[in-house]
Design brief:
By secondary structure, the chain is an alpha+beta fold. The chain is 25% helix and 15% strand. A 3-stranded antiparallel β-sheet has the order 1-3-2, covered by helices on one side. Strands 4-5 form a two-stranded antiparallel ribbon. Strand 2 and strand 3 form a beta hairpin. The relative contact order is 0.12. It comes from Massilia orientalis. This is DUF5710 domain-containing protein.
């Protein structure tokens, strides 16, 4: 089962291609055994980052969330991220956690 990010306005198009609705997760998905190629525009890789609150079916991000240009571990030294995070609330929260 491959979950999709289908906007409400495109639900009929996804259904016509073979997508199914999961009422428990409130998400569209491609059933096992069905080719995912027709569903490329709804695959998760292009989705905005942040976690999904499955109860509310809304994308959630923390108060100190910062979008980074590349994937790295922000708790380990990185020259690019150090510049991007300097002086932000995220950096202040990180410093407070490290003091504990």
């Amino acid at each position: 089962m491959t979950f999709l990010n289908v906007p409400y306005a495109e639900k009929d198009e996804a259904r016509a291609l073979g997508a199914r609705w999961n009422p428990g997760r409130k998400r569209w998905y491609v059933p096992t055994g069905v080719a995912v190629e027709p569903f490329q525009k709804w695959l998760k890789e292009g989705a905005p980052s942040g976690r999904v609150d499955s109860a509310a079916a809304k994308r959630m991000v923390g108060a100190n969330y910062i979008e980074l240009d590349h994937a790295c571990n922000p708790f380990e030294p990185c020259a690019e991220c150090t510049k991007a995070l300097a002086g932000t609330p995220w950096e202040q929260a990180r410093a407070a956690l490290l003091k504990r």
